[in-house]
Amino acid sequence: MLIEPGKLLAEINSPADLKKLSPEQLVTLSTELRDFIIDNVSVYGGHFGASLGVVELTVALHYVFNTPYDQLVWDVGHQAYGHKILTGRRDVFHTNRLYNGISGFPKRKESEYDTFGVGHSSTSISAALGMAEASHFLGMDDKQHIAVIGDGAMTGGLAFEAMNHAGVSNTNLLIILNDNCMSIDPNVGALKDYLTDITTSHTYNKVRDEIWNVLGKFSKFGPNPREIVGKIENSIKSLLLSQSNLFESLNLRYFGPVDGHDVSHMVHVLKDLKDIKGPKILHIVTTKGKGYAPAENGDKTTWHAPGKFDKVTGEIHKKVHETPQPPKYQDVFGHTIVELAEKNDKIMGITPAMPSGSSMNIMMNAMPERAFDVGIAEQHAVTFSAGLATQGLIPFCNIYSTFMQRSYDQVIHDVCIQDLPVNFCLDRAGFAGADGPTHHGAYDIAYMRCIPNMIVSSPMNEEELRNLMFTAQLPREGGAFTIRYPRGQGVMSDWRKPMQAIEIGTGRTVREGSEVAILTIGHIGNYVVEACEYLQEDGLDPAHYDMRFVKPLDEALLHKVFKKFRKIVTVEDGCIMGGFGSAVAEFMVDHGYQARIERLGIPDRIVEHGEQRELHAECNFDPEGIANAVRKLAESNVTV
Ligand SMILES: Cc1ncc(C[n+]2csc(CCOP(=O)(O)OP(=O)(O)O)c2C)c(N)n1
Ligand SMILES: CC(=O)[C@@H](O)[C@H](O)COP(=O)(O)O
Ligand SMILES: [Mg+2]
Known about the structure:
Elements: H1 7-10, H2 15-18, H3 25-44, H4 49-53, H5 55-64, E1 71-74, H6 81-89, H7 124-137, E2 145-150, H8 157-166, E3 173-179, H9 190-200, H10 202-219, H11 226-241, H12 246-249, E4 253-259, H13 263-274, E5 280-285, H14 293-297, H15 329-343, E6 347-351, H16 355-358, H17 361-366, E7 371-373, H18 378-390, E8 394-400, H19 401-404, H20 408-416, E9 423-427, H21 444-449, E10 454-457, H22 462-472, E11 480-484, E12 508-511, E13 516-520, H23 525-537, E14 543-546, E15 549-551, H24 555-564, E16 567-575, H25 580-590, E17 596-602, H26 612-618, H27 623-635
Parallel strand pairs: 1-2, 2-3, 3-5, 4-5, 6-7, 6-8, 8-9, 9-11, 10-11, 13-14, 13-16, 16-17
Antiparallel strand pairs: 10-15, 12-14
Bound molecules: thiamine diphosphate, 1-deoxy-D-xylulose-5-phosphate and magnesium ion.
Function: Catalyzes the acyloin condensation reaction between C atoms 2 and 3 of pyruvate and glyceraldehyde 3-phosphate to yield 1-deoxy-D-xylulose-5-phosphate (DXP).
GO biological process, one term: thiamine biosynthetic process
Pfam families: DXP_synthase_N, Transket_pyr, Transketolase_C
């Protein structure tokens, strides 16, 4: 269902239309844009608070800059809904994040205005700097490059690496630091304190006012007062350098903080900055959820991505169930780590900026001195965990599978080469769903199982998750222990049972059978249970083994399987290449068995966004797809 935009917004089909508006009309447009986002997200879901917070900035940027010639890079991209709507995607915005609809993040294939594909944080400054250096190299020194980065994303090491480089470049790079004191959860760390200090400090405000007085005068001199620019720049610089400013010390000219919700002022400021050459940073202060009272005044973490809600009452729609529902895997993790830590005082919890998403916040609340939110800093989270392990502590480092990709060298260099006993809980393993390819946890089995000193496991249900966590905290010689589990609910409403150790490298038989054996890893095994019901109706009787470990594999069980079966299906919610099925195939070859193995999982292509089950179906490993694969194999004439 297409949602009607306000009158002014209905006229904006591209930023060229926006430029026809008077500065006064921008205020009305901002209100209409905000309403349109509220109307759509309340009905269709998606990220919310962040886009509301940058409405005025978005309008001002497209008003002042010549996009898409000037290059605008959004960090993370969850705040770019306004940008999408103003750049030709208003009428398809109701398909945002839906299967076959537009992406919830900027995406190069989707629009020329989306200069850089995003989803993971802290990339914008590097990307914009690369574009700026390219423009210089290609003789387009009139081109502007703008990176919009949040205070949360600024805590990522990559952002600092980029600023370190930008400070010695002479490019037209404008970094806009959108400071709303929030990550998904409240922002953390010394940088946050520093930004709060600049924003509230009397000295800085005085300096800021002086700068804008100077710039205010300078604007009146006309569109291109280059001579005056130099003089003013010098005075600004000396004024700022007399202060200790983090960004100035990196040779980035610092401007701000300014009110990011005053669209007229933002236009004025951006116009001025456009004429100042070289790398610079504008610090704007905004409110996440601005303009929608429940989000602005309520729990900002909830309103980061609230799901569908009643826009009038602010009530978030929750499915009502008549029977008790299984918990989310993340909550099983959160409660279980506390339960374990109460008995084992060496256990520590680590999350890089996902306390709510991973449910590590349960431990952070229960035992704050033993659980750390380290900011959007996955590399640091892993090496920090390694440091804890050197001292005999037992770290449970919980990272979304997709974000763990950031820390690959740390896993190898800092953990596995040193054989340190660090536990990795990889949440959101497999298809993430509506967030799409940037967030799918597709590769972890393949990238973890090839590292020596690494155990790789995955539970089929809540009880197994708890038992694996219990096993991971028991003393062991060394080595890392990975436990991967998906986004969403498990299958057991009665999950809080006493925990027991699982012998490392052992699987279990879910179902004895004949003709075809199905080997699974993790939660996706529940699809096989469903598939077996259909297959039984067809008179088929496949065996099903929940392997629990990809590494080490349960060799005894596999010998049993390969001795009995010539037709084998493997199922995993991960990339086929190098994954669990590949491990089984390697075992077969290494041990001289011959069988036909049908490997189901994520194919070697980028799978877009949609509901998890839609994506499983697309890749033929939903229950129907699995049943079809088994039927086909059962009918085939395997001669090995
Ligand atoms: C590498 C990486 N880690 C974690 C995340 C999850 N994440 C998405 S948005 C976000 C908070 C970003 O905060 P900020 O940049 O300040 O933007 P805001 O939502 O406040 O506008 C986090 C942690 C991510 N996208 N990428
Ligand atoms: C933009 C981003 O990276 C996060 O907001 C992410 O969408 C959270 O995912 P979950 O909803 O699975 O926690
Ligand atoms: Mg923020």
